Amino acid sequence: MRGASTGIVYGGLKYQARCIADVKADTDHTSFLAGTLSLKEENEVHLIRLSPPGSELVCEGLFYHPNEIWDLKSCPFNPRIFSTVYTSGETYGASVWQIPELNSQSNAPQLEHLISLNEHSFKIKCVLWWPSGKHDKLISIDEGNLFLWSIDTSNKMAKVISQESVGMLHNLSGGAWDPHDRNAVAGICDSSLEFWDLRTMKKTSSIEQAHARDVDYNPKKQHLLVTAEDVSGIRLWDLRRPKCPVKELPGHAHWTWAVRHNPEYDELILSAGTDSTVNLWLAHPPGANDSMSESPVDSPKRPKDSLLNSYTDYEDSVYGLAWSTREPSVFASLSYDGRVGNLFNNLMMILS
Amino acid sequence: MDEKAKRTRELLASFYSTDHSAGGGAGVGSAASPRKMASPDSINSPSFDPDVYMSLLVQKLNLEGLLQKHVEMAAEIKNLDTDLQMLVYENYNKFINATDTIKRMKNNIVGMEANMEQLLAKITSVQSKSDLVNTSLFEKREHIEKLHRTRNLLRKVQFIYDLPTRLAKCIKAEAYADAVRFFIGSKPIFEAYGDSSFQDCKRASEEAIDLVIKNLEAKIYSDSEPIEARAEAVVLLKQLNFPVDSLKTKLLEKLEDYLMTLQDEHKETGASALDTLETSEPSDIGKLSDTILSLKTPTGTHMVSVGEISKIIRAYLIIFPDSERRLIELIQELFTKRYGIIERRVKERMTSADILKMIRVIWEDVTLMDEVLAEAALPAFSLEAARSIIRQFISTSFSHLLLEVSEALTKSQPMPKKGSEESSLQNALEGSKKVVIQGSLDLLLEFRQLLDDNLELLAKLRDLIVDWVQEGFQGFFQKLDERFLALCGKGYIANPDSSVIDAIQVDKVQTGLVLVLAQLSVFIEQIAIPRIMEEIAASFSGGGARGYEHGPAFVPGEICRIFRSAGERFLLLYINMKTQKISILLKKRFTTPNWIKHKEPREVHMFVDLLLQELEAVGIEVRQILPQGLVRRHRHSDSTGSTNSSRSNATREDKLTRTNTQRVRSQFLESHLAKLFEQKMEIFTKVQYTQESVISTIIKFCLKSLQEFVRLQTFNRSGFQQIQLDIEFLKNPLKEFVDDDAAIDFLLKEVIGAAHERCLDPIPLEAPILDKLISTKISKSREESQSSSLA
């Protein structure tokens, strides 16, 4: 590990864990939510906060969760609301929860169960909030279907607006909601990325030949997204030209599991892999230097895409990855053994 | 004496002009003279005052001094007086002489006037007499002149009447020059009186001249006549206002026709040579050399013909001095066409010997022609042509080599038979290696021939050739790299335009080929490039036509770097392709069944066989291509290894079963602690170009993938036991592939650990059942292999 990155490890998670989410709506603190994945024990959701000097990770709240958590997303407009996808043996479910008022007396207060998204007939994969602010819709994805919900957290109501079945041949495993267009959503299928228009619930386009594990829209530029793939590593796409990737980054030694754009500096891409590393990449999106790519002669002048840093201080595969929206130079990573690492680095130095 | 002395002194001074200021100054009264200020004792100054002088003398000197001064002065005065006297005498003498001369002249002139008058009178009388004679002779003279004119005219008439016969005589004697001269002489007369008095005469002589023209024409056309005679004939014809230009064009056309037939001949022979080249088997060297000879055979006749052409051209140059440009055009066209033929043929594969032969033949002709027609700048022209030909030759040679390499790589790919597949990859590798090194060296040899040839033409191109060869190699290897990328379907990043086609091809790319490319890249980097570099340094150093600031065209370091990275990329690509294939297998295995409702394990699942098959295939490919690693560790013997490992594992699992659910959590922490103290297993090490490294990397990747797939599922007891059984079975076969037991053990343990974690009720199979199931599987697979081998 290099000096540029000082990692803070949070050792509070006692079990394996896959999911970590940035509490985007919390504007006062840099906080993350992490959920554990234990088959036999009582699972927990931890609200982890970066103490103001940025030197320590503090557990602000520890809540018991009835089942093992496979997906956890924080509500982008209410810091106390989040969604989980869970399984227990053969059963599965997705719920929206509210964190109770924090008071120091009770160590493990109960989460307030707001809504159950219980229309699913297949194994639920993930729940999506519209990432760019307040929106009363929610998307849940199971292996065969895409549901659009209208939710009302105050009345604890949820109603399916529309549903789209992707058919037997496809097998949805995840997705992402376009932050630039609340009617566009991307779903990860077996060997392709499919895009839907939520108004008509029809497929609009697709990227073939993409065995994606994870997908993330560029938060600053529309039509651009990045995928993490088992073998091909990280690939950047332009939806207007879905035939071939705009850019390829080598990714990880083993599978690349998760990939995230920095919320502020979209050329910074963070990836987590099953080779127990987290890599930070600098990849210039193609729009910015189109003129340069036309003249390959002066390629030395062109900023090179490169691996800025590789964080290798993990014991196990890293599945969880989240940038802090509040402090773009902070990200949280979660390795399977339950260690949350918050890693700073001098992003400003790199960007300047 | 005052006044008088002063005057004489002035006179003297003015006469001899010894002292201007003295004379001038005295005359003007010496107002601004500096001598006024001079000491009063200087006797020669113009402001000399005798009284002051006297008083000064009296004051200064004593009596004796005064006396002495007096004597001195008296002597001076006497001297001056004698001088003056002499001067006066001299002047006087001169004056007397002058007077005498004047007097004599006066006497002489007085006598002359009378003589002059006499002369005038005589001249006038002579003039009057001559006028008299003139007038008396005038008539007679005019008459004589008239007679003379008539006589001349008569003579001319006589000449013209004689002209036909004279011309006939000239024709007989072949003195055409005289004939033409006579005819031209009488031409004005014919023109003036041809229609009237000299009609017959004119006709006759014109007939004669027509004959002359005809004869002259014949003379020009006949090649046997000496050139001078033909040139003379042309000149004569020109004098006769004969349309020589048309004659010239006719002649040139004839020459052109001649050249055309010559070219056709060339073309034919060239084409026939090509035909024979095409039809003849490449192995049939004898035939090949025959064709080369047959290329040569027309040169026998052709040498003669070029010699003739040069002779003709020389003649034409003399005959028609103004036809040079046209001739130059003709000749240049001829040579352009001939070089064009070579250029066309260079596009086919040729040896440099052929090229040299052809260029040499042409060059000989060129020198021959150059002697005749230096203005055509044929050497420069040929230099230009040879330059482009050789450049073309070098570039086509390289592109042929490129084609050969990719052919060698792809040729042995589609092998339907199982037996031949074993060695096909090796063949491809060896073949392409050979092509790369041998082809490059052969090319260098060929190019050396170009360099070593002592042809003047090529010597000038030496530096350029060196540069071209170096550039050629640079470009060749760069293109080779691109070709490699395209071959394994990765080319679409370089050219996004053809991405659609390439992207489809990715699936079709044979993994073995990727491995071959990886090894070939290493070979090129480590052996071929240094070898070629040596060769180039030995015989292609120098160059420098590019200028030093660019450095040499061939940069082996860069090429090495390209191929080193290409090799690594191909190796990784190979591993990726293989692991992807296995990954799909594993994915299917883990996503299809419902693991929570899994039934009790009855036998080892068949995916294990598929996995081992894949690995076997990898092993076959890898063994053909890659070298063995240096370190070979001790290998476990089958039986003991199996029981030992399974038992030891079983004891561990026993321990696990004994732990009750309350203790699972502490178990988790325990395993964490154990992991912390265990040396972190380096799974993802750098891949090396050895069989072991590649296979073990693939296996490690697969096991890691297996672990990840397991982690995504939830198992019941039977599902866990199935995984346990499969993994246990895999242990030994995998160790057959890899010597790194520790890593395999570690990863297998990780898989079982993951399954244990993801199991609702993790109770492992008991060891005897495990052993039994495994042994049945082993015996079954053995039977199968036997039956398949029998079949």
Automatic annotation (TrEMBL), chain A:
Q: Which UniProt keywords apply?
A: Repeat, WD repeat
Asked whether the keyword Repeat is assigned, the reply is yes
**Superkingdom field:** Eukaryota
Q: Which Gene3D superfamilies match?
A: YVTN repeat-like/Quinoprotein amine dehydrogenase
* One Pfam family linked to the record: Beta-prop_EIPR1
Q: Does the keyword Protease apply?
A: no
Q: Which InterPro entries is this protein grouped with?
A: Beta-prop_EIPR1-like (IPR059104), EIPR1 (IPR040323), WD40/YVTN_repeat-like_dom_sf (IPR015943), WD40_repeat_dom_sf (IPR036322), WD40_rpt (IPR001680)
Q: What are the ranges of the WD repeats? A: 249-281
Tell me where in this chain the EIPR1-like beta-propeller domain is found.
5-281
The UniProt entry's GO biological process terms, in alphabetical order, are:
protein ubiquitination
- PANTHER family attached to this UniProt entry: EARP AND GARP COMPLEX-INTERACTING PROTEIN 1, WD-REPEAT PROTEIN
Entry similarity comment: Belongs to the WD repeat EIPR1 family.
Protein name according to UniProt: WD domain, G-beta repeat
UniProtKB/TrEMBL annotation, chain B:
Main location group: Golgi
- Disordered: region residues: 18-43, 633-659
A single GO BP annotation from the record?
A: protein transport
Mark out the compositionally biased spans (Low complexity): 639-649
Q: Name one GO cellular component term.
A: EARP complex
Q: Where in the cell is it found?
A: Golgi apparatus, trans-Golgi network
Task: Tell me the keywords, alphabetical order.
Answer: Coiled coil, Golgi apparatus, Lipid transport, Protein transport, Transport
| Coiled coil (UniProt feature) | 63-129
* Family stated for the protein in its record: Belongs to the VPS51 family.
Q: Please explain the role this protein plays, according to its UniProt record.
A: Acts as component of the GARP complex that is involved in retrograde transport from early and late endosomes to the trans-Golgi network (TGN).
Q: How does it assemble?
A: Component of the Golgi-associated retrograde protein (GARP) complex.
Q: What is this protein called?
A: Vacuolar protein sorting-associated protein 51 homolog
**What organism is the protein native to?**
Musa troglodytarum
Q: What is the lineage of its organism?
A: Eukaryota, Viridiplantae, Streptophyta, Embryophyta, Tracheophyta
